[in-house]
Amino acid sequence: MQEVLLPGNVPVWIAVPQHQGIDGEQVQTGANNPMPVTMAGGIGQGSLYGEKTVGATATAIRIGSSDLAGRQSVLIVNNDPENDIFVGFDNAVTTANGIPVYAGQERLFKVSNITLYAIASTPTSVRVAEIK
User: Its domain of life (predicted)?
Assistant: First the structure.
């Protein structure tokens, strides 16, 4: 919980997202302390990872020229400290209708036989893992 002052200096308490840090203590989730991602079942041999730049045109989120055969999940990590990206299931994704991956955060998509696309208002570097 975090105390915030409303106009007129009225104190209220709000819930702040937290997770367990590497030392076992609770830490506030944010750009400097992103929520860790746990992969149930592990990562299979043949999985791929790399960097993509997402810009104003919908970009396929994959490593290489086609989706990794047999991939089960795609992890997208938005390394940019300021710019958000938006993910969709076709190249018609926009910043208005896409699923947000906010600056400094990550999102894991369980996928099967579908290409993910992303778009951003400013060129944004992301890390991508195609997981078997």
Answer: Bacteria
**Residues 130, 63: contact at Cβ < 8 Å?**
yes
Could you give the strand order of the β-sheet that contains 106-110, starting from the edge strand earlier in sequence?
48-54, 124-131, 73-78, 106-110
Give the range of the structural domain holding residue 1, as residue numbers without chain letter.
1-35
State the pLDDT at residue 68: 94
pLDDT digits (tens, 9 = 90+) for 96-120: 999 999 999 999 999 988 999 999 9
Please compute, for residue 36, the number of CA atoms within 13 A of its CA located in the half-sphere on the CB side: 10
In three-state secondary structure terms, 125 is strand
> What is the domain count for the chain?
2
